Amino acid sequence: MQIIDGKATAAQIKQEIAEEVGRMVQAGRKRPHLAAVLVGHDGGSETYVHNKVLACEACGFRSTLVRYEDDVTEAELLACVDRLNNDADIDGFIVQLPLPRHINKQRIIEAIDPRKDVDGFHPVNVGRLAIGLPCFISATPLGIITLLQRYHIETSGRKCVILGRSNIVGKPMAQLMMQKNYGDATVTVCHSHTANVKAECREADIIIAAIGQPGYVTADMVKPGAVVIDVGTTRVPDATRKSGFRLSGDVCYDEVSPLCSYISPVPGGVGPMTICMLMLNTLKAARGGVFDR
Ligand code: GUN
Predict the structure, then answer these.
(1) What is the Å distance from ligand 1's center to 96 Cα?
(2) Residue 166, class by beta-carbon neighbours within 10 Å (0-12 exposed, 13-18 middle, 19+ buried)?
(3) Domain, as residue range, for 155
(4) Residue 11 lies in a domain
(5) 243 pLDDT band (50/70/90 cuts)?
(6) Which of 38, 80, 94 to mutate to test the pocket of ligand 1 (most atoms within 8 A of CB)?
(7) Same domain, yes or no, for 146 and 74?
(8) Is residue 278 part of a domain?
(9) First CA to last CA across the chain, in angstroms?
């Protein structure tokens, strides 16, 4: 069994990005610039956005954080998106989710210029991904496919089961895993109405668990030799930690890991790759975008 070290892989890629930025600046080009919009004070979102700002520093990017309180209006947020769309120095930006209930999330996402949508959430990017055109790809699925590639894990022709059908992970992951130029695998997506999830998983060469239920994948669901990727990051109370919580994956790591050929742990697996892929998307945006190649 080999542990997939997302932390080390992400550090390596950030180093590669920083070197590329160094060459761009040497050549007289401006630094890539990522902006993040954060609404309210959700603990998880605060941490993610803070880590995104730190990653920008590590990569040599400029970063801008735009903050609003929970009572921001949709019109104010749309005006902010419009400003960022038209700010020539900003190569890409994200609006951190979740948003307060009174804001129509989809309306905000659709207001973002697809050429600056480094999250890959705009329907133009989602649609382009579906038909195999160059586009911004959602960072978590892109991070997973990158880990599989960097560990030389064969996916072509293999059976891949994805647990979860979210717009951010499950659906784009299924697109990437089935596409010729990426996973080239046979893909099954399981969700809350799947008849027999255990049986589907037992057939899988690769399991990608993204349902947000701690310990959902147990040993009896995993074929010996399978590759298991854990996308879960549920905060569970833990009085022994200074923060008062720890991150729990979707996989029962202790009982599943001995069965696997490869497994990604939580923390230190997929998580660090997500922010790193956001940096890569921002670099691509700064180098002229992804649509016209
Ligand atoms: N909330 C959870 N994950 C993400 C992400 O990748 N991007 C944004 N904008 N919000 C998120």
Answers:
(1) 5
(2) middle
(3) 139-271
(4) no
(5) very high
(6) 94
(7) no
(8) no
(9) 39
